[in-house]
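All the exercises in this workshop are built on plain-text protein records. Instead of coordinates, the fold is spelled out as a row of discrete tokens. Once this layout is familiar, the rest of the handout is easier to follow. The record below serves as our worked example for the rest of this section.
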Amino acid sequence: MPHSLELDGLHFPAFADLPPHGDAPLRGWVLLGVVFQDTSLLSRSVYWCRDREGKQFTVALYFDNGVPKPKIAVGNTLCLENATTHYFLDGQVGVRVEEPESIKVLKTSLHALTTLNKEMRVPSPEMKCSKCGKADSKNRCAKCQTLYCSKECQSADWTAGHKRRCLLAGQLVEWNKKYE
């Protein structure tokens, strides 16, 4: 399947385009936001994020007691499935996350994720090995579909930094299958 995912459309709305809480007739979108401030308290995890348009919004985790909270750091990108706008008691407008499975944390910036997605959208006319450039390479990374000519090149690329890129590319491949 060719990679045709767009991170700025129906399935990846900006914060301003989210439906209000309780008014979401459909499911099937992901709000992406990069964390720029952690304002968590002992009892509640709260983060300030920016979406792809630079709009700031709050993300507050409301998990049941005993449910582990994800490790989130400034600079990470939060992926919030089927997010809706929520009006908090303190007057803030943001996203209230109640289901742990609806949040994914990517240890990269939104800019880096968008750049990688654009690179993946460019079709390669030749089946070249990602490590050495050898033509007619047929082996693929199972997670992200990166091409390799041999297991040796794949292993060498893994230690050279593919591991981090693979996690991000794998998420993009998963979304491409789900939303295209």
Remarks:
- The mean pLDDT is 88.
